[in-house]
Model the fold of this input.
Amino acid sequence: MSKADKTILVFGATGQQGGSVAKALRSAGWRVRAFVRNPDNANAKALAATGIELARGDLADSQSINDAMAGIHGVFSVQPSSGQGAAYGVTDEDEVRYGTAVADIALKNGVRHFVYSSTGAAGPDKTGMGHFDSKSEIEAHVRGLDMVHTIVRPSAFMEILMLPGMGLDKGEFTFFMHADQQMQFIAVEDIGKIVAGIFSEPERYSSRTIEIASDAVTGKDLATKFSAVAARTIGYRRFPDSLLEQNPFLGTLAKLADDGRLTGNADIAALHEAFPGLLTFDQWLEGAGRDALLAAINATGDTVSLR
Done:
C-alpha cells in the first residue's frame, strides 16, 4: 500500500504541533484524519478544506478515541497540558491519563506506527515541573507497549520568544538562558516536517527517542538578530533573580536551563541532514518570525506568560 492508501490519525490537529503535523503529512502524500472536539471550529473547518478527514471526539471519551482509530495506519499523539494555562482546564493527571489511553487504544487497534510528542526536558529524572514530568510518564508507558513507536522531544519553540511580557516592546528581551549560554529552538512547522519523515521510515526510527531542534542561539545572538530585523536596538538579559525567586514556575524553568535540560541536547547537524528544509533561526525570522517579532515589539504587557 502507498501513503495515499494509509491514514494517519493526528491528535491536537487544531493546535500548533498537531496542525503542523497534519499539514506536513498531507503534503507528503498521506491520508490524514484529525481528532477534533468541534468539527465546526474554524481551525477544524480549515483542516477539512485541505482534504483532511475530521473525527469528532473527546480525550475523556475512550470510545470516541477507539472509533477514530478504525482503519488507521499510524497515530501522532500530543495532548493538552497544564503548561498551556488554566484556559485548557487540564491537570497533569489528566494529561497522563489521556496520553496513556491513546497509546493503549492504538495498540488494541493494531496501529502500525505510533509517534508521541513529548518535550526536550523529559527524561528519567524528575524536573519538578508537572507538565514535563507528566510527559516522562507517558513516554515510559509507550515504551512498555508491544508496538512500533517513536518518541520525539521538541526543544523550545521559536514562537515562544514572541509572547507578550518578555520585554520586546520595551527594547530589552528577557528569557531563561544567560547571555552567553546557547539554547536550542525549533519552529513549530519543522515539527511537522520531522514527524512526516519519521512516518515515512518506520524501520529507521522504531523504538527511538529523538531530541529535535533546528538551531541554537545565545541570549546575545537573540539581541543581535532581533535588533537587525526591528531596525532598532534590542538588548538581552536573563530574567532577574528577584523575579525567579518570587515566581516558582519561572524559577524552576531557570534551574532547568542552568542544568541543561531546558536548553536542549539535539544533534542539530544530524537532524538537518536527515530532514532537509529545517529552518535556522535566521530563516524563521525572515519568514513567519518577522511578523511575530514586529507584533511583539508593538504590543504592550507586563505579565510574563509561558504556560
Observations:
- The first strand starts at residue 7 and ends at 11.
- Residues 154 and 212 are 5 Å apart (CA to CA).
- The longest helix spans residues 92-108.
- The chain has a mean pLDDT of 94.
